[in-house]
Design goal:
By secondary structure, the protein is an alpha+beta fold. The protein folds into two domains: 1-28, no CATH class; 31-72, no CATH class. 21% of the residues lie in helices and 17% in strands. It has one helix at residues 8-22, and strands at residues 43-48, 59-64. The N and C termini lie far apart (43 Å).
Length: 72
């Protein structure tokens, strides 16, 4: 891939995003407070809009923590 005018780091990030989406996966960005979840045991629900054509969508992300674990 060649992108004139973009530094190598930007091209690498774009390529990574493209390859992730190409295989049917998705990426979450700009999530906050993940450091407050326990290292294991939390269940994360992701509610995203069903978009057929587009490069992104807002999402509602909720984490459930088992009663026997605490939030930091």
């Amino acid at each position: 891939m060649h992108f004139p005018g973009f530094p190598g780091e930007a091209v690498l990030e774009f390529r990574t995003n493209y390859e992730t989406a190409f295989v049917g996966n998705f990426a979450l960005e700009l999530l906050t407070n993940l450091d407050k979840l326990p290292p294991r045991g939390a269940i994360i629900f992701i509610g995203a809009l069903a978009i057929k054509i587009g490069s992104g969508s807002p999402a509602q992300v909720t984490a459930l923590v088992p009663k026997n674990q605490s939030i930091r």
